[in-house]
Amino acid sequence: MNSNYYAVIMAGGVGARFWPMSRTSQPKQFIDILGTGESLLQQTFKRFEKICPKENIFIATNSIYRELIKEQLGIPDNQILCEPIRRNTAPCIAYANHKIMSKNPDATVIVAPSDHVIVNSDLFHDVVLSAMDAATKNEWLITLGIRPSHPNTGYGYIQYDENVMYAADNRIKKVKTFTEKPELEMAKSFLTSGDFLWNAGIFIWSAKSCAKAFRQFLPEVDELFEEGKRFYNTPEETAFINETYPKCRNISIDYGVMEHAKNVYVLSSDFGWSDLGTWGSLYEHLPKNKHQNSIVGDNVMTYDTQNTIIHMPKGKLAVIQGLEDYIVAEDSGILLICKKSEEQKIRQFVTDVEVEKGEKFV
Amino acid sequence: MNSNYYAVIMAGGVGARFWPMSRTSQPKQFIDILGTGESLLQQTFKRFEKICPKENIFIATNSIYRELIKEQLGIPDNQILCEPIRRNTAPCIAYANHKIMSKNPDATVIVAPSDHVIVNSDLFHDVVLSAMDAATKNEWLITLGIRPSHPNTGYGYIQYDENVMYAADNRIKKVKTFTEKPELEMAKSFLTSGDFLWNAGIFIWSAKSCAKAFRQFLPEVDELFEEGKRFYNTPEETAFINETYPKCRNISIDYGVMEHAKNVYVLSSDFGWSDLGTWGSLYEHLPKNKHQNSIVGDNVMTYDTQNTIIHMPKGKLAVIQGLEDYIVAEDSGILLICKKSEEQKIRQFVTDVEVEKGEKFV
After folding, report:
1. Torsion of CA B308, B312, B316, B320, to 10 degrees
2. How far apart are CA A173 and CA B57, in angstroms?
3. pLDDT for the residue A17
4. Which residues make Cβ contacts (< 8 Å) with residue B331, sequence separation at least 6?
């Protein structure tokens, strides 16, 4: 295993879409949402354990999740980067990159979300190793792009240049444009054109290339973290970050860096990826029984029920009759029943509940 | 208040129909199924407190419910008649009547189930007092009959003789026939004929008339309890009953006595009665909001949901979207979702659950 390989797993998100399972006290990445016995974070960590030494894997998160992460992953405090306040992906990556640079200036780093699903982990492993190798040998900012299967309007898209590819792995192509969540018509034309990929939000680069890009495109963010040079990996790091972090702009890595840089490449692949951003996309990735029901829970009985997602706590007895295309979910004593087609209303339900009850439920 | 007036409330039933709320450990009569803050038993007891002295009200039940009853009603052990084993209504009534006779041979007694709903309690009070008076002055076995509103096939029917009525209250008429749950066509013809009433299972008689009827029609049951004469209302009563009760036939008062006796009268009335035998009949009696939802539970929010019964434990947060004509009920951590039209399947679900899990859930 290459001791210069590092991983940064971003695990700071909250998320109301999978309410009631996902709440501030326990966001999606910490839940066994696929019913596998492992949280999405644990699955992500396992994937990266095969790519770099365990002690080179860092988790960037909000400080409120520190104990939960130690519990789920059994890693020491020094591998948990705690943001005192939410500031989107760019500050988080700048911080992690500075910390890694101070340990190992020759590092090659993969940055990835903690709450996505990857179905074909062998292919993912192969893809990442190739991208890590390319990023070690070239001053490139590499992203992973997924060959789209349908005109999803919830994803960002990456357009690549068909004529500029990496000789050592011609799946790696030069990026032309980034597009945020498009309208349906545009998404359809992206699919037709054939040179657009879904942006999986996974980045691979050398720590040096990353640092250089920040200096160029987000110099004020870079300077804030540069000032802490002597504190990284010392007992003073936390105090420095707690003071510095709130001064940072709230900006994403895509918007702040990737869309401006000229040395961006994308490795196009199809390892069965989803950001599990909606119940619908979760349903796609859950095992289904002969009635096309996806059931997480060991004590659920269904009758005349089809195409329904049921998510019950361990041991909970539920008898469900006569539902088609529904979500039935319970967690921490909160029950949700909702048509799958109305899942976008769940955020509103949560807001209503909070207004009505004067209490935080997310 | 007439100190010769006594009441026997039958509260020994189990009941799977309102599962998961109603289970052996907590049958329907002990539940606040109407969301009023009182169980059906408590409501029944309250109605009889206005008719006879509190100490003259006896609860006939299974011994496993003794503590629950003391808790709900705050009455002493001597007013709780504990059957060691289930033997239907005739043995229960024979026991209660012997016990009351040994206290007061001039007693007039009303016998009633504990788990019915009575909407118009003023009219009920008036009806019962009139029947008690008639039963005191006449050697009659009086039942309460409800003027039927629809051809219900779940109820027993009583046909009366239009020409033979009590001068002091011409709502009291002589009974011609008893009919158990009829087929739909027969139930329809009963309604058309106009001289059929629903059998509410409420009986009023003098203790002496009741004793006489048992001696005549169920002599072997009567003799068993006659033998215990010296034990009633003594510390030996329980031991005697525990030994005697299992020897009794399992037979209902209707089948064993009422269908044979010639001195049966019915008081026809309409005080808004239901045996709450089904979710459908419960729904009729629950308050409904503007969407025709009946909601028991203080933390339930509904969207696009109509004609649905929701029964949630106190404090339980439930967000329910997109249901029409459903039952959603939770109790003791067991969740049931079922179309109202399929409520007759609930018994089967419970059986399936027990077979599947090898565990008693009812």
Report:
1. -20
2. 88
3. 74
4. B20, B21, B23, B311, B313
Are residues B335 and A317, on separate chains, in Cβ contact within 8 Å? yes
Q: Give tens-digit pLDDT for A104-123.
A: 999 999 999 999 999 899 99
Nearest-by-Cβ selection for A337 from B321, B345, B352: B321
Q: Which of residues 1-30 of A touch B (CB under 8 A)?
A: 20
Q: Any chain A CB within 8 A of the CB of B345?
A: yes
The two beta strands, A157-166 and A196-206, are antiparallel
Supply the ipTM of this predicted assembly: 0.75
For tokens 């408590």, name the residue. Answer: B42
pLDDT at A360: 62
Residue of A nearest to B313 (CA): A333
Using CA atoms, how far apart are residues A30 and A66, in angstroms rounded to an integer? 12
Of B303, B338, B356, the CB nearest to A321: B338
Residue B316, number of CB atoms within 10 A of its CB: 16
What is the pTM (predicted TM-score) of this model? Answer: 0.77
Return the pLDDT at B361: 54
B168 touches chain A (CB under 8 A): no
Cis peptide before B182 (omega within 30 of 0): no
List, for chain A, all residue ranges whose pLDDT scores fall below the cut of 70.
Answer: 15-16, 358-362
The residues of chain B scoring below 50 in pLDDT are none
* Nearest CA distance, B344 vs chain A (angstrom): 12
Q: Inter-chain contact B321–A345, Cβ cutoff 8 Å?
A: yes
Of chain A, the end-to-end C-alpha distance in Å amounts to 41
Kindly state whether B301 is in contact with chain A, defined as any CB-CB distance less than 8 angstroms: yes
